[in-house]
Every structure is written in C-alpha cells, then in structure tokens.
C-alpha cells in the first residue's frame, strides 16, 4: 500500500483526506497548520497525524496539498522544512489548491528537476462534493504522473479529466470560474428584473429552469438569491482570488475578459463591505447597488 500524506485539512481537504483513509487502500498521514483540525481529523478517521510538513513528506510516496492560494502553497513546498526539501525522488505531488497557471508551471519545474512527479489538479463541486466524495477534478501534468494520481484521486472524485500538460488543470478551472461569473451576473439581472415586475419567483423558476436558461446556479441558488440568503456555499474571497488568476492569465493569452472584470470588481466591493465569506450568489447585492 502507498504512503499518502495529505496537507491542508480545510473545508475541502478534511473530507477528501477522510475518503482516502476510508478507502482502506492507502496508509494516510495528515498535517494541518492549525493543530485542532488535524486532531479532529485523527479522532474521526484511521490514519496518522504528522507533527510537521517535513515529517509528513519524508517517506511519502504521494504528497497531496489542498491549501488556499499561491502564497500558501509556495510556503508549504519551498520552506526550509517544506515538501521539496524532504520528499524522496520518484515520489508524486498532487496539488488540489486552485492556483495561478504561473505557480503550477513553477512547481512542475521545481519537482521535475529532482525527478519528482507533479500534477495540478484543482477541484470543483464545493464542500458538499468533498463530503460526498464526488468532486470533479481537472488535471494537468505528465501522463505518467497523472496515471499514478488517478487511483488516489478516485477516492473522492466522480470525474477526473486530463486536460493537458502542467498548468492545464488550473487553466480548465479558470474557464469554470469565468463561466460561473457570467452565469451569476445574468441570474442576478434576471431575478431583479422579475422582482421589479412582481413575478413570483417559484412560479418563474418552474417555468424557465428546465429550458435553455437552466444552470446549476439557477437550480441551486436562484431561490436563495431571491430570499437574500448567502451565508453558505462558495466564498466570494475565493472567487476573487480565482478570477484574479484568470485576469492575470488573460493578459498573457490576450483574451478580452472585460465582462469578467466587471463581475470581479463587484465582488471586490462586497469584500470591502466586509462580506467576503458570503456565497458568490451575493453578487445580486451589488447589481442592485446595495
Ligand atoms: N470551499 C469550496 O467550496 C471550494 C470549492 C472548489 C475549490 N476550492 C479551492 O480549494 C482550496 C481549499 O479551499 P477550502 O475551502 O478547503 O479552504 P480553507 O477551508 O480555508 O482551507 C485552507 C487550508 O489551507 C491551510 N493553509 C492556508 N495557508 C497555509 C499556509 N501558509 N501553510 C500551511 N497551511 C496553510 C489552512 O490551514 P489552517 O487550518 O491553519 O488555516 C487550511 O487547512 C482553495 O484553493 C479553494 O479555492 C474550494
């Protein structure tokens, strides 16, 4: 059985590492920066709790990371006692964090120099997808590394899509986020328009949600948007981070993301108002000018 170390037991990482342990197919050890989460994980699942990134990395066949943003991953990888210094050659690193394309390329280069495999593998499906073990995972990297990663990722995924070389998992996730931003902008406009015409939202949704306007956001968020309930779901602070990576990459690949930039600016205003933890469907608040 492979030794798999899982670093980062946040909203997503905690249940993902749990599925790995419950599969019975791996020796799992976990590490989290704040100790309470790793202790809680250790109480709930079979596996060992490492005292440091170094201890988790030494002897691991595979190290999985699920942290917040670029800077966090860089710290975990490049610190003196970090993954790069302590992992064995021929091991594999899987990064589930949503990061920039630039970071994914940089990490792939650093690991390849030491003959260590690397795949960028951001996820989609939210907390509920992580809890139910049915995430969608977009993967970039060398095919041999991806082949090693797939049976491990399968423990918490319903679909694993190989997109291309290193960085392409992150690029696919960016497309996902660009599309969500556009859908939520349209949904916000549509709901506000309906409210101004006193159309009953439930009736409206049963009329249009099975047609060409249907979307995951309409199905799962339209009603709560109409009730102005946003205290759950995918936090705006993460969306701003992700759209920032998209806008940055769009400068390099020369895509006009002016519409996405408008949505990004609205989200930044919501963060300035102190509401960065709200679900991304809170975009409707900005559209009304609240
Ligand atoms: N939440 C979602 O619905 C969702 C959906 C799809 C993708 N994602 C992406 O998945 C990733 C994880 O999201 P999440 O919701 O699980 O975030 P989260 O709950 O904030 O967890 C982040 C984890 O990273 C750790 N961390 C952050 N900075 C660190 C550092 N410098 N050194 C060591 N550990 C560090 C945190 O440790 P502490 O416990 O010590 O803070 C925590 O365990 C993000 O990239 C996010 O964009 C999230």
Helical content (DSSP H or I, runs of 4+): 40-55%
Topology pattern, helix = H, strand = E: EHEHEHEHHEHEEHEHEHHHHHH
N-end to C-end Cα span? 55 Å
Bound molecules: NADP nicotinamide-adenine-dinucleotide phosphate
DSSP E strands, number: 9
How would you sum up the major sheet? Answer: 9 strands, mixed
The chain-level mean pLDDT equals 97
What is the general shape? globular
Spans of 5+ residues with little confidence (pLDDT < 50)? none
In angstroms, what is the radius of gyration? 20 Å
What is the count of helical runs?
A: 14
Beta-strand content estimate:
5-15%
Structural class comes to: alpha/beta
For this entry, give a set of tags.
290 residues; 9-stranded mixed sheet; 54% helix; alpha/beta
Q: What is the element layout, followed by pairings?
A:
Layout: E1 2-7, H1 13-23, E2 26-31, H2 35-44, E3 48-49, H3 53-57, E4 62-65, H4 70-78, H5 83-86, E5 92-95, H6 101-113, E6 117-120, E7 123-124, H7 126-132, E8 135-141, H8 143-153, E9 157-164, H9 168-196, H10 201-208, H11 216-226, H12 236-253, H13 258-272, H14 283-287
Parallel strand pairs: 1-2, 1-4, 2-3, 4-5, 5-6, 8-9
Antiparallel strand pairs: 6-8, 7-8
Helix pairs in contact: 1-7, 9-11, 9-12, 9-13, 12-13
The chain binds NADP nicotinamide-adenine-dinucleotide phosphate.
NADP nicotinamide-adenine-dinucleotide phosphate is lined by residues 8-13, 32-34, 37, 66-68, 72, 75-76, 97-98, 123-124, 126-127, 234, 238.
């Amino acid at each position: 059985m492979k030794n798999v170390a899982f670093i980062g037991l946040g909203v997503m990482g905690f249940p993902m590492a749990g599925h790995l342990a419950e599969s019975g197919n791996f020796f799992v050890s976990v590490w989290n920066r704040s100790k309470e989460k790793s202790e809680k994980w250790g109480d709930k699942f079979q596996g060992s709790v490492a005292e440091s990134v170094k201890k988790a990395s030494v002897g691991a066949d595979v190290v999985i990371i699920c942290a917040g943003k670029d800077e966090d991953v860089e710290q975990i990888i490049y610190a003196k006692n970090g993954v790069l210094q302590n992992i064995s050659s021929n091991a594999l690193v899987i990064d589930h964090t949503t990061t920039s394309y630039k970071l994914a390329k940089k990490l792939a280069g650093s690991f390849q120099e030491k003959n260590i495999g690397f795949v960028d593998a951001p996820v989609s499906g939210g907390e509920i997808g992580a809890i139910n073990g049915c995430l969608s995972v977009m993967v970039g990297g060398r095919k041999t590394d991806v082949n090693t990663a797939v049976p491990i990722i399968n423990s918490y995924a319903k679909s694993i899509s190989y997109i291309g070389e290193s960085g392409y998992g992150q690029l696919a996730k960016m497309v996902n986020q660009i599309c969500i931003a556009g859908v939520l902008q349209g949904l916000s406009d549509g709901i506000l328009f309906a409210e101004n015409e006193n159309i009953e939202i439930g009736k409206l949704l049963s009329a249009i949600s099975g047609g060409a306007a249907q979307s995951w956001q309409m199905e799962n968020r339209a009603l709560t948007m109409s009730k102005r309930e946003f205290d759950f779901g995918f936090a705006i602070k993460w969306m701003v981070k992700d759209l920032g990576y998209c806008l940055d990459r769009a400068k390099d690949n020369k895509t006009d993301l002016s519409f996405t930039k408008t949505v990004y600016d609205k989200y930044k205003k919501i963060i300035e108002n102190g509401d960065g933890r709200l679900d991304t469907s809170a975009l409707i608040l900005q559209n009304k000018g609240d």
